[in-house]
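does this look right to u?? 9MR version
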Amino acid sequence: MKRRRTALVCLTALLAAAVTALPAAPAGADETEQVKNGTFDNGTESWWASGNVTAAVTDGRLCADVPGGTTNRWDAAVGQNDIALVAGESYRFSFTATGAPADHVVRAIVGLSVSPYDTYYEVSPQLSVSGNTYSYTFTSPVDTTQGQVGFQLGGTPDAWRFCVDDVSLLGGVAPEPYVPDTGPRVRVNQVGYLPSGPKNATLVTDATARLPWQLKDAGGRAVAHGWSVPRGADASSGQNVHTIDFGRWTRRGDGYTLVVDGETSHPFAIGTAGYERLRTDSAKYYYTQRSGIAIDDELRPGYARPAGHVGTAPNQGDTEVPCRPGECDYTLDVSGGWYDAGDHGKYVVNGGISAWELLSTYERSLHARTGKPSKLGDGTLALPESGNKVPDILDEARWELEFLLKMQVPAGQPLAGMAHHKIHDAQWTGLPLLPSDDPQKRELHPPTTAATLNLAATAAQAARLYRPYDRAFAAKALDAARTAWAAALAHPDVLADENDGTGGGAYPDSRVDDEFYWAAAELYLTTGERTFERYVLTSPVHTADIFGPLGFDWARTAAAARLDLATVPSRLPGRDAVRRSVVRGADRYLATLEAQPYGMPYAPDGNVYDWGSNAQVLNNAVVLATAHDITGGAAYRDGAVQTMDYVLGRNALNISYVTGYGEVSAHRQHSRWYARQLDPALPDPPDGTLAGGPNSAIQDPYAQSKLQGCVGQFCYIDDIQSWSTNEHTVNWNAALVRMASFVADQG
Ligand code: 9MR
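got this back:
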């Protein structure tokens, strides 16, 4: 499934030159040069430049004078078309280049020269005045004769000069197998272990017999020792592994290491501070995802940016958004909300589960025996609203809830009361691109039953949680929820078009019985009314086994209902059975976790890791955590806590998937504005940002060029181009917020 496309604007101005010899003959026997005149011996023959660039051959190189003040990289470019590419064949893409003044970035691509301008390979090196040679190997994901080699130079405020020489795309080269740098073979939670919690590690080794291990403190003194447990071949990674349990050591400290089989782990702490910090950082992530408000540097140093989509040029903004042509004849003010992910889209399906999981983090703190509501209370998240006497986590969730309410079709219009599925750009935009620079037209997409029920569920939940702070808002939310519920009942099968994925994600959901159950459950918990009680009790979803390997997410929402029915006080008949069903689900996740040498409650069928697997791992842990809240059982707590080890470094790649946490952490998540990898003037994602994680389907060309044939956990790469394995999203981070908060509470 292809989803995100990078446009290379149509280029004209083919530069004329005499037709003579091709560049130097290929180096190896079967290696063939695909670029014509890559050495510019024949002037500019075979090369083009966009109309705003003056390109000419100077001293045997192609030099381009690039104007300042364009928006996108591809707004100024030079390149060559008619490049043939063969699927599965490997190519070496190389060139030498200079940029003056220094530090400009060129986006060098191999892609499609015609619409939809797919990019198959791209790099964005920063250039020097003296020049460097760049060389990369990749494997083409497609067959085409309409390929293109392009150097995209736009998007800078100032004018600059780019020169390039020895451009080569050599086909038939040996593929360069991608070998991730996985560091020491002993894998630990790089952030840390709770003093009284479980402490497990995984060792990658060919040894079949047990091996002695030592735990060393920061001073290098061995403070504990024991033997590893051989676990044989691990399906999730294809590795031979042992596990190590050092849970008997409980003394707090920083800089511990685990030493075994001649390897020393990354350092880690034993303590709670890391989780307290993660609790707030993961929740602070949402402020910098906000649309419609300028991000304040005092609140988020290094992350200031102008408000996005507020109705000022160059984008039309979100204050008066029309439907796609012919789909409705009104406009809506749908400003605000959170950007979904690394794109500028805003989706009700996905916004819903994200808002729910933040609200549920707060709601859990009110009801669970280890809950501490003040930890996400007023003043904890450095928000513009901090100091308003409302818990900050509720202020943040309200930013999204207000947007969800605005997506409801107004009274008097066809489908009144339903919610539009989403609002986003008419076309995909490229990277990097600040929200405030988005030049695309914004459009509302048709209402769906799923979106309507997402609105009903979260607005109903909001009604009970905001009542102590803002009665008017609570009443308005409940009203909207009731209206949405009635509209969904009247239009129970209006599904999103699964092909509606241009300019934004499709978020198609072909089953909405779980959304009906979820909305009914939230409406029941807030109102106690018989209609909703009856709907819940008679829904087949109420008694279905819903705690499967892939857990819950934006499309599978039954668990949201079941967990709330099990934990939010109510007089629901049969509530004990509901609670027992959660515990049974947790038993299964616990069994999975125990069978996994990397200790995560996740073993998808056929070892097929799903899109956003890290959030699914965490959501399965939420079921474990809830079973602990229900029963007080230590095994459930330990399972939930142990899941953090996998996310924070005890995994096949030896990486912490949370930016800023651990010695080696994901920090190049796919994003249009946390795009430091592409533009050194931009920041990396903020600390506390979760990467989507291994995804067996590797839908993006970059992952395809590196990860073909990957096994489970290895289907991940920390590169900004890999939108299918390395994006960040509001729903995935919500699972992190929920779990970070639970684990911090166990300290
Ligand atoms: O996470 C989503 C995944 O489950 C879907 O299969 C995919 C296609 O609809 O979309 C993913 O979500 C993306 C969304 O469509 C657009 N914003 C970024 C999301 C994460 O990649």
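The pocket of 9MR is lined by residues 3, 340-341, 343, 345, 505-507, 611-612, 723, 727, 729 (CB under 6 Å). idk if thats expected tbh
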